[in-house]
Write a structure and sequence with these properties.
With 459 residues, the protein is an alpha+beta fold. The protein has two domains: 7-69 and 145-336, Bira Bifunctional Protein, Domain 2 (BirA Bifunctional Protein, domain 2, 2-Layer Sandwich), CATH 3.30.930.10; 363-458, Rossmann fold (3-Layer(aba) Sandwich). Helices cover 28% and strands 28% of the residues.
């Protein structure tokens, strides 16, 4: 059995309608990708699974959907305007630009020999725009580089409107934008992406325990939906590598690059940070933004204090924050890679299959007429498809795109758990054949019992 590589996943995604290069018709736009018919279903299912686990199944979480455009002051006092940058270098010979911490020193220059690189200089990653008809400094705004700041500036709004008590969290899924110097590796590093972030507010002094609990919860979530334990690692960032806002950060790393040397196979899929009271201090009236060099920016613009009143101690305090933050695109890519398998059937044939968790699979059931030129058989297949679809629980697909073998192969490659086949006998006995994706075993089921049969096995 063979597993996934990035090249195999890219090929599958284009062939089966998961992902396409952004603006491909006009030569593409680097760092952008469009989710196709199967991709948008998979991505939405990933987001639903995350939201269900972190909002619906908890009693200590609220949801939020903040705007993408933000007042410039938000990103000034968060520290982004001053520090959200990557080191940029130019090659004096070929004029290409690179991230200084990612360029291979042995890489050959197209103009011959090694690159002749300039000294690194900071390059701010935020996309800048103007709001309104006048383009001047007073109207500058940014596309948010993360969803987190929308949560922090709404902390008091959510607190006052819900009467929450610590500990509690605010969850958000939304787009973010970063002008990456060198977007690469498919959807691993892009300029437009989605994040799933939680800011979990706790009493000072309880933050380290909550940090450990959130790390364990997030690892369990990945494994629940099919990520194999051996493909997920935890990396505790050493003190010298921590962001200026972080007291402690543990990254969850996934084996995105199995074809590389073992030491280079894993990269970040999610980070869980203990941000102590940094963010609410930045965004509170009379607070300040502290930088790594010891300097600080006083907040003279916020109109209220972002504090929490603790009734037992009769004090106002600034909560500490635990932040689990993952990119939807990277998480979707991880599920695709972990589910991918090339295997030999018992008949000696090769097949490619996505063993996606049923909750994540883009299509739950495919309904296939054995003979697409038989009107009665096609009508029965379409009726069964409609009946399954109208329950509102199952994304169902009618498939008559080829012979039965080709239909099965197509559904295996998009991860469909069940194929329901209508044959000549079905017209007489009102029974259909249900094929299981993972085992390829088949059951003969009455049409009347089909809904319950599938629902029980999908969980």
């Amino acid at each position: 059995m063979a597993g996934a590589t990035m090249d195999k996943i890219v090929s599958l995604c284009k062939r089966r309608g998961f992902l396409f290069q952004g603006s491909e018709l006009y030569g593409g736009l680097q760092g952008t990708w469009d989710y196709g018919p199967m991709g948008v279903e998979l991505k939405n299912n990933v987001k639903r699974a995350w939201w269900r686990a972190n909002v619906y199944e908890r009693d200590d979480m609220e949801g939020l959907d903040a705007s993408i455009l933000m007042n410039r002051l938000v990103l000034r006092h968060s520290g982004h305007e001053a520090t959200f940058s990557d080191p940029l270098v130019d090659c004096r010979k070929c004029k290409k630009r690179f991230r200084a911490d990612q360029i291979d020193p042995t890489e050959k220059c197209p103009e011959g020999g090694a690159h002749n690189l300039t000294e690194p200089r900071p390059f701010n990653l935020m996309f800048k725009t103007t709001v309104g008809p006048i383009e001047d400094d007073d109207n500058i705004a940014y596309l948010r580089p993360e969803t987190a700041q929308g949560i922090f500036v709404n902390f008091k709004n959510v607190l006052d409107s819900t009467n929450r008590k610590l500990p509690f969290g605010i969850a958000q899924i939304g787009k973010a934008y970063r002008n990456e110097i060198t977007p690469k590796n498919f959807i691993f590093r892009v300029r437009e992406f989605e994040q799933m972030e939680i800011e979990y507010f706790v009493m000072p002094g309880t933050d380290e325990e909550w940090h450990k609990r959130w790390i364990a919860d997030r690892v369990a979530w990945y494994q629940q939906y099919g990520i194999r334990p051996g493909n997920l690692q935890q990396f505790v960032q050493p003190p010298e590598e921590l962001s200026h806002y972080s007291k402690a950060t543990t990254d969850l790393l996934y084996r995105f690059f199995p074809e590389r040397d073992e030491s280079k196979q894993f990269d970040e899929v999610e980070g869980i940070a203990n941000r102590f009271d940094y963010d609410l201090t930045c965004h509170t009236k009379g607070g300040k933004t502290a930088f790594k060099d010891g300097s600080f920016l006083p907040n003279e613009h916020a109109v209220l204090k972002q504090t929490y009143f603790d009734q037992p101690t009769n004090t106002h305090l600034i909560p500490y924050v635990i932040e689990p933050s993952g990119g939807v695109d990277r998480i979707t890519l991880a599920f695709l890679m972990d589910a991918y398998e090339e295997e030999q059937t018992t008949e000696g044939k090769e097949r490619t299959v996505l063993h996606l968790h049923p909750d994540l699979a883009p299509v739950k059931v495919a309904v296939i007429p054995l003979a697409r030129n038989k009107p009665n058989m096609v009508e029965m297949a379409k009726r069964i498809k409609r009946d399954l679809q109208t329950t509102g629980k199952l994304r169902t697909l009618f498939d008559d795109s080829g012979n039965i073998g080709k239909c099965y192969a197509r559904q295996d490659e998009i991860g469909t758990p069940f194929c329901v086949t209508i044959d000549h006998q079905s017209l007489e006995d009102q029974q259909v054949t249900v094929r299981h994706r993972d085992t390829m075993l088949q059951d003969r089921i009455s049409v009347d019992a089909l809904d319950r049969y599938v629902e029980e096995r999908l969980g």
